[in-house]
Amino acid sequence: MNNDWDQLRFFLALAQNKTLTRAGRSLQVSHSTVFRKLKSMEEELGVTLFENTSTGYSLTNAGRQLLEETQEVGDIIETSFRKLNGLDQRIQGKIVLATTESMASKLLPKIFQKFQEKYPELLLEIRVGQETLNLSKREADIAIRSSKNPPPNLVGRKMNGLQFALFAHEAYIEKYGPIEFPKDSEKHHFILLDDSMSHLEAKHWMDRQVVNPAGIIRVNGMLTLIELCEAGLGIAALPDYPKEILNPNLKRLMSLPKSKENSLWILTHKDLVRSKRIRLTTEFFYQELKPYFS
Length: 294
Fold this sequence. Notes:
Elements: H1 4-17, H2 20-27, H3 31-45, E1 50-53, E2 56-59, H4 61-86, E3 93-99, H5 101-107, H6 109-118, E4 122-128, E5 142-147, E6 154-159, E7 164-169, H7 170-176, E8 189-193, H8 201-209, E9 215-219, H9 222-230, E10 236-239, E11 250-255, E12 263-269, H10 276-289
Helix pairs in contact: 1-2, 1-3, 1-4, 2-3, 5-9
């Protein structure tokens, strides 16, 4: 094959990530580039390496054989790249930061602005989503996430976990009347998280408390939960952010029991901690977020 490693890394990325979009994200290219590289590789080898199924790209027998023979080589090369990046002492270049959609849109915008003003030579690339990106595969440089026990190959700064409170919009309260929760939950409408958010204690606590409500909407994301509550569609357990961050028309009804299981972490791979730009970025976000999670 021509450009053996270049094509091989596209193969390994798709084998690991299962979809063109996620493979492209891990390589910082478009999904169409991944598709073209894959087709070129299959044509050169004269075999089909993947089958496109309803759940993503699955390896064929030929693909599984190639993966077995090349996985170790790919891991060695990725480790080498990470260690080289860790030696970088420049305060310039790109920082890929992964976090949740709700934090990126509600809590972090002003902090992003401060970061740009302090480090104009550093370009932030923000990746949002519920799934945890693989820092070992360089899908992100830094992750801001809630976690019980981060993997041993990740290191970082730890803060108290995200706390939750019960909220409702003023318009909802005017329409449905005062709320005595959970005593009168049968009279009210609730917006709850679905099972994809089962890592949050707040989801399970609300499921136990809300019995036979007048109505339920379930959502699979925190940002959607916040926006529907802000639209007055029901009562919801939201992150207990400061007043200036949430809609001023949201009324805080009560605190949920404090979570002790999950902490908020700012994480990076242990091979990157010597990089000056990674250290500065991690410390900057820690100092900015610490007042909210003390």
